[in-house]
Amino acid sequence: MEKKRNKKIKEKNLKTALILLILFCVSITPLILAEEASAASVSYEYQVFELINEERGKFNLAPLKIDKELSNAATIRCSEIKTSFSHIRPNGAQWYSVSSKANSENLARGSTTPQDVVSGWMASNSHRPNILNPNFKSTGIAYLSGNPTCWVQLFSIDEASDTISSPPNTNGGGTTPNTSGSGTTPNTSGGGTTPNTSGGGTTSNTGGGTTNSTSGGGTSTNLKNSTPSSVKPATPSFSLVSGSKRIAIKWKKVSKANGYEIYRSTSKNGKYSRIKTVTKRDTVQYIDKNLKKKKKYFYRIRSYTVNNGKKVFSNASPKKSKTTK
User: Of 58, 141, 263, 314, which has the highest C-beta tally within 10 A?
Assistant: First the structure.
């Protein structure tokens, strides 16, 4: 009798343990799958990061570092190009308004693997220069899965101020991003294997509806909605020299700039009004005349390029002041 009772107790305990084990497995499986999906998602972006640096290494260029601010900005741009594949943001602003650090942008939609994306960019005369620009030091990468999937890579001439070990998970999907590249890069002349050595180097791709097919190195990538890139020039540095009721503004010539705009204010944080547009790229000085005697004036300057009849401006320079004699 005692043996039968012990047997029933053992069977009951075994069933209880089995039920608990099943419940545990059911509860932990979603977490495991989520972690695996997250890891896969990060790996796609990180694979692009490693492949980009691999390409740079072939030309003895320093590897890029991942910048947190640029990665967050790339995530924003990724969601924006999902519905509007353009370097013009949905609010009408230029793409580089997403971050003051951003100097260039590569966009892509339609390929199937990180290898395809990088191969497509490297085979494109308007994307390759960004990847091989020796002036770029940091980057941010993001993608979104779906139909179509979207890729964004931002580049900067600034050092990564808040580095992260790998690109953030912007999607959470476990599928390989599908990207057929359009992307913006500095529009540079020269051979396809020559890195872009100009500073600044920001670009904008204003997606058209045409399809361009490019191939290189035995692989081919369909570049959808690809349009010519435009270059956001570097911010000019300048100095001020005071004279009698006048101030001379002198700046260093910016590579690839078509002209410059000069702004003035009577207070550091006041309203800056444009006082001169310089349309000759070789001009590097302007004299602001008929000013008040012994008065302090504040100045800012920015360069611009012209793409398809539209001006693309650099970031505005830091404010500088001088008092007239």
Answer: 141
Cα 190 to its chain centre, rounded Å, is 23
Lookup: tokens for 257: 């700039």
Quote the pLDDT of residue 112.
Answer: 75
The residue written with tokens 């890195």 in the block is: 195
Q: Are 140 and 71 within 8 A, CB to CB?
A: yes
Contact status, residue 130 vs residue 186, Cβ threshold 8 Å: yes
Question: For residue 272, what are its two tokens?
Answer: 């800056």
Residue 64 to residue 76: CA distance in whole angstroms: 21
Q: Which two tokens stand for residue 298?
A: 């504040």
> Which of the residues in the chain have pLDDT under 70?
1-13, 15, 23-42, 162-231, 308
Which is it for the CA torsion 263, 264, 270, 272, positive or negative?
Answer: negative
Cα 116 to Cα 185: distance, rounded to the nearest angstrom: 18
Q: CB-hemisphere CA count at 13 Å for 187?
A: 15
Supply the Cα-derived Rg of the chain in whole angstroms: 27
Q: Which pLDDT belongs to residue 205?
A: 34
Q: Which of 86, 228, 95, 113 is nearest to 155 (CA)?
A: 95
Contact assessment for residue 223 and residue 180, using Cβ atoms and an 8 Å cutoff: yes
In 111-201, DSSP assigns E strands to: 138-144, 150-156
Q: Check the CA dihedral 75-78-82-83 and report its sign.
A: positive
Closest CA to 202 of 244, 247, 239, 233: 233
Q: What is the per-residue pLDDT across 130-188, written as a single tens digit (0 to 9) for each?
A: 999 998 999 999 988 888 888 899 999 888 876 665 555 544 333 333 333 344 433 33
Q: What is the DSSP string of 6-54?
A: HHHHHHHHHHHHHHHHHHHHHHHHHHHHHHHHHHHHHHHHHHHHHHHHH
Distance CA 74, CA 70 (A): 6
Report residue 3 as tokens. 């043996």
**pLDDT at site 189:** 27
